[in-house]
Every structure is written in C-alpha cells, then in structure tokens.
Design brief:
binds 3-methyl-2-oxobutanoic acid; globular; about 45% helix; TIM Barrel; about 260 residues; alpha/beta; 8 strands
C-alpha cells in the first residue's frame, strides 16, 4: 500500500521512525522504493550530486520536473515529495501556487517541499494547502540561502537563533504543512521542535530525536566526492563501481571480454 501524509502523522503518534531518502532518477528510485523507504524526496540537492553544480541555486523548475517524472515512473509505494527550486516560490504566494501546481499536475508526486518559515513562508504554505497541495517545510540550514548563511553551516546555535527556528516550525505547522525537515541544527533544538509539533519532523544532521531521518542518497552510498560532517556512509559504491569498470576495461583491452 502506498504511503500517505496521514500515515506519516500516524507514524509520529505511534513512535515509528520515518525513513526518508533523496532520489533523482529512475533506477535508483526503484531500488530505494523496493527497499522499503517511506518517503522519497526529489531534493534540489540533485543539482549538486547529479548535475555537478556547487550549490542548489542554479536548478530550474523544468529540470526538477524532469527528474521527478523519472522518479515517479519508478516508485510504487513511497510518498514522493518534490523540492521547489530557488526562485520558483519566493516572489509571492501566487508564484508559488503556479510552480507547485505545475509540479503536481505534471509529475504525479504527492507533495512539494519549500525552504524557510515564519513569517516569509507561512502565508505561501497556507495558500498552497488551501488549494489542496500537501506541503513539507524545511528549516534550519536552508541550502537555497547558502550565501546569506555564509556556507553550509549548522544553524540555531544561539538561544535567539534556536527560538526563531522553533517559531518557524510552529508557523509552518499552523499554515498546514504535513511535515518539516530540520537540517543541521543542534539535537537539543530538534528535540524541542519535535516535542512541540504534532506533525512529524524529518531530521538531517539534527540528531536522533526527530520523528524521521533523511540523507542525501549519494552520501549514504559513498558516491559523493564531498559529504557533510553528519552524513553516514553505508556503502562504498564509488570504489566498487571504479573497480568494476577497471576490470571491464582490462578485460576488453586484453581481449578477454567478450569471451571467444
Ligand atoms: O535537497 C535535498 O536533498 C533536501 C534534503 C535535505 C531533504 O532538501
């Protein structure tokens, strides 16, 4: 049975951790879905891990839709959430509705995600939710603001910054978001946010107390050349793939493949 936003709320109430990962293409999304991941986020981090940009800023709405369609074709069970890229929603709630509407109509995803909280984004989230669009929020380290933040660094370290992140998460819940990503914030702050909200928190670099966890799949698989300090690598696919390709190359050059 396909995962729904209502089910994620139930998971929080029952204390069952939510498993989320990022996805950007058909093959990998199929593997992740069949492995039982609850939520697949077509995150704009694909700009970095799949397209080679140094930040998430350059990716366009059309490119996000292109990748989301590939993920949709692969996935039968996981809930698919598509990131709204930089400058596709910041201008006005009306612009956000147009962009989110395109994502929902053309990709078949279940939800969209956008970065930022109170007071900038809650009106936008409310507008999307009123139109029947499921929205996931994202606070803490918001990579689309990387230059304003001075790098991909931990957020919410001072009491004031922590209070602001808590207020943003509350505002997103009040605006109707069904879940909130908490990125790279101190674990104690993530615990406070998680206890305060009735909707699930999905942590990335936010410690063990969130209702769920997400990682950028390229980091988990050991494919990335750079990964954030909080990411855990569960496989060494970069070296595994390189070794396989080197063996193939050697066999071709030595006339061992194809076999005679
Ligand atoms: O872009 C991304 O990969 C994300 C994840 C942190 C969820 O936003």
């Amino acid at each position: 049975m396909a995962v729904t936003t209502q089910q994620l709320l139930r998971f929080k109430r029952e204390g069952r951790p939510i498993v989320a990962l990022t996805a950007w293409d058909y093959l990998l999304a199929q593997v992740l879905d069949q492995a039982g991941v609850d939520v697949l986020i077509v995150g704009d981090s694909l700009a970095m891990v799949a397209l080679g940009y140094s930040t998430t800023l350059p990716i366009t709405l059309d490119e996000m839709i292109h990748h989301a369609k590939a993920v949709r074709r692969a996935v039968q069970k996981a809930l698919i959430v598509v990131d709204m890229p930089f400058m596709s929603y910041q201008e006005s709630p009306k612009q956000a509705l147009r962009s989110a509407g395109r994502i929902m109509k053309t990709t078949g995803a279940e939800a969209v995600k956008l970065e930022g909280g109170y007071p900038e984004m809650s009106e936008t989230v409310a507008r999307l939710v009123q139109s029947g669009i499921a929205v996931m929020g994202h606070v803490g380290l918001t990579p689309q603001s990387v230059h304003q933040l001075g790098g991909f660094r931990q957020q919410g370290k001072s009491p004031e910054a922590g209070e602001r992140i808590l207020a943003e998460a509350i505002a997103l819940e009040q605006a109707g978001a069904f879940a909130v990503v908490l990125e790279h914030i101190p674990p104690e702050l993530a615990l406070r946010v998680t206890q305060k909200l009735t909707i699930p928190t999905i942590g990335i670099g936010a410690g063990p107390h969130c209702d769920g966890q997400v990682l950028v799949t390229a980091d988990l698989l050991g494919l990335s050349t750079w990964k954030p300090p909080f990411a855990k690598t569960y496989a060494d696919l970069r070296n595994t793939i390189a070794a396989a390709v080197q063996t193939y190359a050697q066999e071709v050059r030595e006339h061992q493949f194809p076999a005679k």
